[in-house]
Amino acid sequence: MSDTWRHELETIRNEAMASLANTSDSKALNDWRIEVLGKKSALSQMSKAMGSLAPEDRRALGEALNRVRQELEQAWRSRQAEMEAKEKALRLERERIDVTLPGREVPLGAMHPISRVIEEIEDIFMSLGFSVVEGPEVETDHYNFELLNIPKDHPARDMQDTFYLTEEWLLRTHTSPMQVRTMERMRGRTPIRVIVPGRVYRRDEDDATHSHQFTQIEGLVVDEGIRMSDLKGTLEAFAKALFGPSQRVRLRPSYFPFTEPSCEVDLVCVSCGGAGCRTCKGTGWIEILGAGMVHPRVLDMSGYDSARYTGFAFGLGAERIAMLRYGISDIRMLYQNDLRFLRQFRHA
Amino acid sequence: MRASYKWLAEYLDLAGLSPADLADRLTSAGLAVDAVDPLNRGVEGVVIGKVLDVRPHPQADRLKVCQVDVGGRQLEIVCGAPNVAPGLVVPVALPGAKLPGGVEIRIAEFRGVSSHGMLCSADELGLETRYLPKRDAEGLFVLPADLPLGADVVPHLHLDDVVFDLDLTPNRSDCLSIRGLVHELSAILRRPHRFPASVAAPEADGESPLQVRLETPRCPRYEAQLLDGAEIRETPLWMKMRLLAMGVRSIDLVVDVTNYVMLEWGQPLHAFDADAIAQGTIVVRQAREGERLVTLDGQERALTPDMMVIADPEKAIGLAGVMGGENSEIGPSTRRIALESARFDGASIRRTGQALSLRSEAQQRFEKGVDPAAVSSALHRATELLVQLAGSRPVGAPRRVPPQADVSKPTVISFSPHACARFLGVDVPEGEMRACFEALGFGVEHGEGAWRVEVPTRRPDIQAPADLYEEVARLYGYHHIPATSMRLPVEAPESSGHLMIVRKVRRALVDWGLCEVRTYALTSPEAEAPIAPSGVPVALLRPMSDDRRVLRRHLLPSLAEVARHNLAHQVPGGAIFEVGKMFLASSWPQQALPEEQQVLGMLWFGETEGNPFERPRPYDFYDAKGVCDALLARLGIRAAYQASQHVYLHPGRQASIEVNGAPVGFLGELHPDVGEAYDVKRAVYAQFDLDRLFSLASSDVRVRPIPRHPASRRDLAVVVPSELESQALIDSAWRTLGDGGDLRLVRVFDVYTGVGVPEGHKSLAVALWFQSDERTLTDAEIDQAVVAVLRAWEEAFGAKLRA
To answer: How much is the ipTM here?
Structure first.
């Protein structure tokens, strides 16, 4: 008799284990639990039917039933855990996103290349102890020319074709009037160490290398005992800071009415490093700025006794530096403000 | 200024120096050589030939078949030049010859006749024909008959010369002549020049028949020589070619001689037809009001009393130092020549030239300064050349006014070698300084400590010790100057705070996605018209174009132009800004200089680019306002927005930005008419006055403790009339609860219209934050405050809690 029960129990267990292995989702697993372990399950039927058995058999069967039930419950739990793990894995897999889509955009603007150059140059000179000052764009003939030793009807005026507003007023042709204005403001105090960035205007037709409006950065140093070699040393320090430690400067004699001696200042060509290329027309050098020792007449007219004080001044074009630095071949690109051009200056 | 290598070599030993070497030496001494061009641009295998016979081509009307003697052999050459004729001596390119432009000559057949070479024009030889007389420039280049047939044309045409193109600075007028350049080169190279000891002019005895009267102080010296006869009028080839090398056009022998001497000496000369000078009397005077003169270029010029003229007692015959008059022009029939060599005031000559838009070689030299010592020498030299080349005869001695020799004295400068070395920062040996001066032809006298340096009159640019320092530096070599450090005190730079604000603003805007632009300050009233700016534009006296004739009064037109350009070039939109000046005047011209107001202008135009998270959309008012808010926050400025009334902005979409009731800026969508005028459809503009921002900005931070008690937030959705500004609810809440109480923040976080909200109304969702520093607030306290706010809103605006 008990063999029949045992056999039946064995069959229930085996069949249940087999069907458990076949459950494929949590619903099937739940159905399996109800069918195998629920109130109407064969196991429960057997438990109920146990009352009719002899006490000895009942105990034996009870133990057997319990063992099978526990075994099946254990199997169900691990199957459930296994299935949950699988389903979680599936869900996570479903949640996969396209990581190659762009991130939510943080808009990046761009500083104009001329401003970039100006700020960089300001930083270099400020680190050398220079102050940065600015001046008016509408100037008087007096400051723009006369006080810079360029009298009326002087041929040197041809060097800078001028936009006049009236007989006496004009758009400044250079930032040099700020040499005089600075000396006047300092009223004889020394040392003077300033740079002056600003827009300037000349009556030039706009083309690839000329612009009727452009940007200069003026420099002025005045004190007792300033030497021409200090001019060279300062500009060399500047050149190294701007274009790298291997830079050198070369001075060439030139003429500006407000400096004496005057010079053009060349740097080692930034394109070829001095080997000679198209940018430097094979010379290995590129002209970068004009400079000189402040003309004694300019010092005297600005209230600094030229017998006691000396100084140097220089003026460079921000456009020229920007063009060299960023490989810009046409100055008009700097004033066209095409965003396809400007956005190339996004990275700081 | 162009300069001929061969001419220089006449007066200076250039042995061992190639033209390129010479150019380097000149450039490093401050006389920049822009170009070194051989006169021969590629002529090879061209010889001198003589046309013996010319016959018509059997097949072609325009061609001729010529027999040409090229020195011992005869060639048959087909030629199309109209001026070909038997007996002419011309350049002949033999088969195998090369011509400029990569042309190679071969035996070729022209309609059945083979041509064994080519007869050449000046142009085909690569000559700048604009510098040749017309008859030499057109057709075959006819050469002097005495040239050896079969010889290479290169030396005979003086093509074996090299031309330097010098970019002279305006102070070096002394180098506007071959002699001046030789002086300079002599100093640079330390080689002695070999000028002829003196010019032996064939002077005639007796008084000059010419009379000269100087009636203006602007002509301190005038010399004139009368010459009789000028039989030969053809300029010799060597002189033509030398003028060509120097870039001066050959015209006729008499004129060419005056130009040649000017190029040699730097002293401009003029030749008059002496028979055109009434009473043989030359008067130098200021022009009379209303006086007119036809100049050599055929133009009738209206003269003013500021202009100096050469005249006779009846009429003006030339513009002094600028251009001669047609009425006294040298022509084929001229029999007597009056040669003029004079000094004129440079500034006066310059003004005259500018007033008449003339820029002659003579004028440029007078402007920059001519050596007073050259006046007599140049006159001698020209007389000599006319006698030699034209067969002229001097009549009487030169007339010199004033009669005594020129009194111009050399400049004497006190020079301290020690001060010079200290100034340059390099120890130039005293002997070296002395050698520099001597090589320049300056006199040096040792004194006690200082030297006396005597500078000849040909160097008017040398006036003070600093000028001598420069001479020493450039001849010793700028490359000897070391790079030294200044010994100056360490000081914190006192840069303008203004500049620092600009840098801060620029950086912030770039970080927030705006692109900086830089535009032109010159514009036109038409470009500004759509926004009708106030005041009057500051105008240029002589603009270069109508588009750029006034200074801008506003930044918006400049930025709108940038937007237009970009929209027209496939850029869908963007946000841009500029820091620039507006130039303001109440009338123009006015008593004071125009005000330069520095402003920040910003423009959002077109559409955002769009991305996977947001579709492209037009930039709108709130994009601009967000940036304005952030900028003010970054500068530590609290501002309020008030509806404003700029005519060029959308009347319902603009606001002024105010601090303590005073405007610091404004923003708004462009008025549709303005957008249309600028071709930018829709854009939003914002502007700040940078001076105001600068005076208000603060970067001070004082930290407040973080609150220890929790905050409570209440969200209220209220229905209000559509036109109610949300700020009114916020202000009312603060008024109701006071800003010293537990209310800490009021913020609108949603606006809704649609289902559930009646027509003409909107629902605003407002968050109120309550917090106390002392304790945790109870719900009852907060509810009470909320009720008070709601009641105030209902009373003031009819606001109802949204169901």
So the answer is: 0.88
